[in-house]
Amino acid sequence: MAYVHPRFDAIRATDPEVADLVVAEAEREAGAIRLIASENYASEAVMAATGSVFTNKYSEGYAGKRYYEGQRVVDQVETLAIERAKALFGAEHANVQPYSGSPANLAVYLAFAEPGDTIMGMSLAAGGHLTHGHKVSATGKWFDAVGYGVRKETGRIDLDDVRELALEHRPKILFCGGTAVPRTIDFAGFAEIAAEVDALLVADIAHIAGLVAGGAHPSPIGHAPVVMTTTHKSLRGPRGAMILTDADHASAIDKAVFPGLQGGPHNHTTAAIAVALSEASTDEFAEYAHRIVTNARALGEVLAERGLDLVSGGTDNHLLLVDLTPTAIGGKPAAQALDRAGIVCNYNAVPFDPKPPFNPSGLRLGTPAVTSRGMGPDEMAAIGNWIVDVVEADGDDEVEQRVRNEVTDLVGSFPAPGITL
């Protein structure tokens, strides 16, 4: 089987060992149902830009203010990415240089907080992110971190609880958003709390940026003065990040990214971000964003009908959090069994999880990648039934092989974008 990708022949000629691994990964991605909520299929154009000549150029600084010569073209591509980001999200300012989401969040802290300041974000156990103040993260070591969670009865954020904590601790920065939040984030509600305690509201939309861009989730712009997003996941771009701000917070962010945290930007990634933002500005992408949500809800309905518990009872966005606590099955063995059956997801903690993080009680499922392949509610029904079959089989080889064969038949009808086998 041949893997067709820009300049792949050069990899094969120079390093057959790496070329074989590229082919193996392409076959894995194309041959499985990918339900990891933070993964997607970048287009061939995005991947081509990522592998373009822009990887050769070093460009410390910003457009028009570089420390190296020869920046005429690089300045244009970064400016293009900035303008497209501002237009797509309606932001006053955009910085497209952060290497990824975690460094981007560190830039926010560097710009607007001092070590020892109080920060507040959703706890990792409830669905937040490491960089929102978890104790194993630098953000939890350098700052006095306060975490909010969800109501046990509903699995949802209760803004009254958030407000009570904020009034008690008076954080310098208040984060909203996370990595396993299946419900709509009330940016306006968080903004009211931030204003009441004089905190800077930062919206982390790394997971839902594509939904925001496509109009399938409310936007934080106008509510949060600072917005961080990665550019892969639902936005379907390269692995990078952006920070969007209002005019008042622009200078501090730019200084924090460079020279505060980073050296030269990854210009090949910037070029690919520009391509992805162009793709995300189309009517086709808006339809795609809404299909992601439709598919997630359809998948959730089947899982619930088959008896699996969903945190918060369902989803408003691209992801589902399955709570296996009522069963005798752990999230990790369930995820491993599904992987063997050709359905790739990740084990994940659920709110109030009685089990440890490396062997938690939940599964996190997301629909951006399968939606990129053109799958719809009918396919979600099949996938949902396979998930329950495998989970309930609890390691039964025959069930896993049967599902693996059926998965292979299904994905053969839905080519993976950017991958030709």
Description:
There is one protein chain. The N and C termini lie close together (6 Å). The protein folds into 2 domains: 50-280, 3-Layer(aba) Sandwich (Aspartate Aminotransferase, domain 2); 283-411, Alpha-Beta Complex (Aspartate Aminotransferase, domain 1). With 421 residues, the chain is an alpha/beta fold. The protein has helices at residues 8-14, 16-31, 44-50, 72-89, 101-112, 138-142, 159-169, 187-196, 209-213, 250-261, 267-280, 283-305, 331-340, 368-372, 377-393, 397-411, and strands at 33-34, 61-62, 65-66, 93-95, 118-122, 144-148, 173-176, 200-204, 226-230, 241-245, 309-310, 319-323, 343-344, 346-348, 362-366. It is built from 16 helices and 15 strands. The longest helix is centred in the last third of the chain and has 23 residues, at 283-305.
Radius of gyration: 22 Å
Architecture of the largest domain in CATH? 3-Layer(aba) Sandwich
Distance between the termini: 6 Å
For the secondary structure, the number of strands is 15
CATH topology term of the largest domain: Aspartate Aminotransferase, domain 2
Q: How many domain units?
A: 2
Q: Widest sheet: strand order? A: 4-10-9-8-7-5-6
List the helices and strands and how they pair.
Blueprint: H1 8-14, H2 16-31, E1 33-34, H3 44-50, E2 61-62, E3 65-66, H4 72-89, E4 93-95, H5 101-112, E5 118-122, H6 138-142, E6 144-148, H7 159-169, E7 173-176, H8 187-196, E8 200-204, H9 209-213, E9 226-230, E10 241-245, H10 250-261, H11 267-280, H12 283-305, E11 309-310, E12 319-323, H13 331-340, E13 343-344, E14 346-348, E15 362-366, H14 368-372, H15 377-393, H16 397-411
Parallel strand pairs: 1-13, 5-6, 5-7, 7-8, 8-9
Antiparallel strand pairs: 2-3, 4-10, 9-10, 11-12, 12-15, 14-15
Helix pairs in contact: 1-2, 3-11, 4-11, 5-10, 7-8, 12-15, 15-16
